[in-house]
Amino acid sequence: MPFQTSGLHHVTAIGGDPQRNVDFYLRTLGLRLVKTTVNFDDPGTYHLYYGDESGKPGTLLTFFPWRGAPRGRIGTGQATTTSFSVPEHSIGWWKRHLDAAGVTVSEVVNRDEEEALLFRDPDGLQLALVAHPQEDPRNPWDTPMVPAEHAIRGLHSVTMSVTREDATAGMLIEGLGLSLASEDRNRFRFAAGDGGPGALVDVVVTPNSPKGLVAAGTVHHVAWRAPDEETQAAWREELIERGVGVTSIRDRQYFRSIYFREPGGVLLEIATDQPGFAIDEPLLELGKALKLPPWLEPDRERIESSLPELELPSENNPVGT
């Protein structure tokens, strides 16, 4: 019996200008910046985490933003669209809101009994807002720009583009414990547990599409949830026994991670739910200060001098700003 993830943990993408990234995700999409840190493997750039009030697993979209980064190419071997969950009655509000913000947005698309709006962020990252017919119980972040009644509840799903379905499906089912939920021509939906927002991945098979190139405007990896470190360690051993090339367990300070590629080329991660983002700053101050792991603290002065300053809207930290 394979291990079974309970759903998406986070999606990590590559961005361009960090301030433009912050402005779009905080002001236009109404998310909260829950952690300002650096790429632990390349501390010359930020790692910015956006989510709900506390950054719960399943609400998180994170970025490595490099000012002046070249534009990537969206294609096979990538997660090509990141979708957020919004209330069913809010699609019209979001269409007007995005239009007013100067964002080019599609007409409402209907698929799998869901309504969706498709658009891109300033770097070209493909995004969607999806209204699921069932209520999403996750609590949103409430801001003056995006009130709670319409706000994003968290991740809805990711779409992966591959050239063949069978090997990727095998990894999702046998490696992550997902199940095939629906099939529509070249689109296959897989679900964790009972499915629903935050527990879905769509696999689109496009044999003749060009291979993606990871740079600004593309997804770097997709992370799935593990409840604790013990489960993650045992999961890693099972993947190795299956012949999967898995990294060592990496300390990401706010969770622990392992990484591997599914056969279609998409980089996947299994991340622990704990310890979370409040271990080094109070809830109301999340994202306000640059946080570094202990092993990078001796280089704080050099790291801070290499990073551009960020200005956060006051509503990101409503008390004590």
From TrEMBL:
Keyword Ribosomal protein: no
Keyword match Lyase: yes
Pfam family membership, one: Glyoxalase
Record-linked Gene3D superfamilies: 2,3-Dihydroxybiphenyl 1,2-Dioxygenase, domain 1 (3.10.180.10)
Domain VOC, chain residue ranges per copy: 7-132, 154-273
Molecular-function GO terms, alphabetical: lyase activity
InterPro entries to which the protein is assigned, alphabetical: Extradiol_RC_dioxygenase (IPR052537), Glyas_Bleomycin-R_OHBP_Dase (IPR029068), Glyas_Fos-R_dOase_dom (IPR004360), VOC_core (IPR037523)
Name of the featured protein: Lactoylglutathione lyase-like lyase
Keywords noted in UniProt: Lyase
